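Need tokens for this chain, all 111 residues.
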Amino acid sequence: MQMEQAQRREEDYIAVGASGDLKEEQMMVCVVKNQPVLIIRNHHNLYAISGVCSHAYSELIDGELEGDKIYCSLHFACFDIRTGMPLEGPANKPLRTFEVKEDEGKIWVRE
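Here are the structure tokens for all 111 residues:
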């Protein structure tokens, strides 16, 4: 699992990595306010969701990314990476989503 050191910035955004480090259809984990956040680049967009499955503690970085869906490796719950909404059980609670953007060659997540 790759963890990126966060760097503070104005407007409650923190830098979590370099833009060039995250290629298309790749994921990385960062920590925002002591919580793992999964950053995903998909279809040339960035998404940021809770890094832990809402059903049972399992890190989603170990899951499978298929299009706009991520599957948990523990019980195969499926979530929409754009909204955090569960698409397949056993999870029935959505994942928290975070605002994410690219600026100055870095990826920024709003706390």
